[in-house]
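Section 5: illustrative case.
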């Protein structure tokens, strides 16, 4: 009961935060549409809201409550937070709508901070593909070490840290792929195909180990109830197969899109940062742009 009650409280606050983020984004998006019409397309707004919905599925939905009983559900959470939600969030071009939705005084306060040389250097560092790859790989491997995995299940605080780290590392990982802001540190676009390929390797090794291992890797699930009748070993193999399939399909799709853009850059929509256009805006244009582009 204590775990159930605590999980319900966490789900309530997580849902509230995600709903607030959605409302702020929609407010800014509506303002932009009134001033610039097609600057941030409908598909971008739908993408951002879908990303928030996937985060909600991972951390606040009724399905998320089963992660202490089934490794497969736990794996679904990881995939939603690291692999599926972040690209949709980035494709939603969140910088521009959020800058238009926030109060002018708050935007004006943040503008000098975002324009300073330190923040620009930080943006270049965070967008470095090597750092993004290491952050995602380290998070994935680290939290699947049995000791840390068990810690995340037994401690609500560490469970929250685990989920946050998967989401943050996923956002970092997809930054060089989507390129929501021109940071100047991104390499040639063809290198992203290699970047995605290398990212599949640790995932394939981990998922293959879970699928073909003939022993239970995470003994913490031995004492958990089995809601679907799966044995612990069957659950482990299902989780590994799910990770293997999902990662392969998502990264292959992203690589195919990048390759298609390289071969025919004019035939596909621009997935990078939203282009700035002259606009009539009561807030100074330089202030808004400073928050939209790091």
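Designed sequence:
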């Amino acid at each position: 009961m204590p775990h159930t009650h605590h999980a319900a409280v966490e789900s309530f606050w997580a849902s509230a935060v995600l709903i607030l983020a959605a409302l702020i984004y929609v407010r800014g998006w509506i303002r932009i549409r009134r001033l610039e019409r097609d600057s941030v397309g409908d598909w971008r707004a739908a993408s951002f809201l879908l990303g928030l919905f996937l985060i909600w599925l991972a951390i606040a939905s009724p399905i998320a409550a089963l992660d202490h009983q089934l490794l497969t559900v736990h794996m679904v959470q990881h995939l939603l937070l690291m692999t599926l939600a972040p690209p949709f969030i980035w494709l939603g071009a969140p910088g521009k709508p959020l800058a238009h939705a926030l109060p002018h005084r708050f935007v004006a306060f943040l503008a000098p901070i975002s324009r300073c040389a330190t923040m620009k250097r930080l943006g270049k560092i965070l967008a470095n593909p090597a750092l993004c790859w290491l952050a995602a790989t380290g998070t994935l491997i680290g939290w699947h070490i049995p000791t840390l995995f068990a810690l995340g299940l037994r401690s609500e605080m560490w469970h929250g840290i685990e989920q946050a780290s998967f989401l943050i590392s996923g956002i970092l990982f997809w930054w060089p792929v989507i390129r929501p802001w021109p940071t100047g540190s991104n390499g040639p676009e063809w290198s992203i195909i290699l970047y995605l390929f290398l990212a599949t390797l640790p995932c394939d090794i981990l998922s293959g180990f879970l699928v073909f291992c003939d022993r239970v890797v995470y003994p913490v699930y031995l004492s958990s109830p089995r809601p679907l009748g799966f044995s612990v070993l069957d659950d482990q193999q299902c989780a590994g197969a799910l990770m293997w399939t999902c990662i392969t399909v998502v990264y292959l799709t992203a690589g195919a899109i990048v390759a298609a853009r390289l071969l025919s850059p004019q035939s596909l929509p621009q997935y990078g940062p939203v282009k700035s256009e002259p606009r009539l805006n009561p807030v100074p244009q330089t202030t808004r742009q400073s928050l939209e582009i790091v």
